[in-house]
Amino acid sequence: MFYFKRIITACLALVALLTHTTAVAEISNLASQQPSSQETPPNQSVNETKLRIGPGDPVAGKSKAELCFGCHGEDGNSTSPEFPKLAGQYGIYIAKQIRNFQATTRTHQVMSAMAAAVIDEDLADIAAYFASQPMMKGASPSSNKIGKKLFENDDLPRMMVRCNNCHGTTGKGQNPGNPVYPVIGGQHKDYLLGQLINFRKGARNNSPSGVMNTIVHRLSDAELEALADYISGL
Ligand code: HEC
Ligand code: HEC
Q1: Is residue 5 scored above 70 in pLDDT?
Q2: Which of 63, 72, 108, 121 is the pocket-test mutation for ligand 1 (most atoms within 8 Å of CB)?
Q3: What burial class does residue 43 get, using C-beta atoms within 10 Å of its C-beta: 0-12 exposed, 13-18 middle, 19+ buried?
Q4: For the chain, which domains are there?
């Protein structure tokens, strides 16, 4: 059992390393496609807000984002659970998803068509606008014990790394922040559950090195439901 655990730990370390390497490559790739005028000068410290907003201009982004308001809400807090909240989400994560929809590495009948309408010059600003809004929050905390347990504890025999290891202690992202790991705390329950099911069945494959597919692939329907319930209340 001891050796088995060591092997699993080594595998997970490898996954983490691969995730990190791919993520860094993806971020520098993204950054190289953004206007350089908004970038932080090399000697200025990058604070959390700046990191969350990314390279775009949130003020210019508001009018460019009007196209999105009907579904995602003017402040990024959509009311219908079928449309994910974008409020306070990392700008770089939002932009990555749009690029993934455009490249068909992530697909959705409605959102793929919307992403195709976004021109390159506007993307960073639109993403920055939603990122700059007060962060998504659950309506009320969930008392779901199964969800909480899975969120906070590894289950290594099943290759499940605790969610808060990457998504932050309350699902709001990492501190001091890493735009690779999206904010999930306070997101709509139905949307969360839908994505977890998509990751498990491989219908969504765009996480770096397929890390999300690996993490949820041995969780049951009831466990995914419990996780979505717990996380949506954060
Ligand atoms: C007609 C409704 C509609 C409009 C308008 C729309 N979206 Fe979406 N969007 C969706 C749906 C539905 C999803 C969920 C897709 C899924 O389930 O995979 C989504 C998902 C997303 C995601 C992924 C969120 C995540 O947490 O991974 C981003 C980012 C996004 N939309 C950005 C935008 C932007 C930017 C615009 C405006 C240019 C926009 N959307 C316009 C319906 C819409
Ligand atoms: C090793 C790091 C890591 C761990 C552990 C992890 N995640 Fe993720 N997760 C990610 C990354 C990276 C993404 C972004 C995928 C992308 O770029 O599309 C993600 C995306 C997601 C999304 C999609 C968010 C959205 O807005 O569409 C959900 C939901 C999610 N994770 C839930 C979980 C849950 C629940 C757990 C625990 C069972 C978990 N994650 C554990 C790294 C991780």
Answers
A1: no
A2: 72
A3: exposed
A4: 21-34+48-131 (1.10.760.10), 145-232 (1.10.760.10)
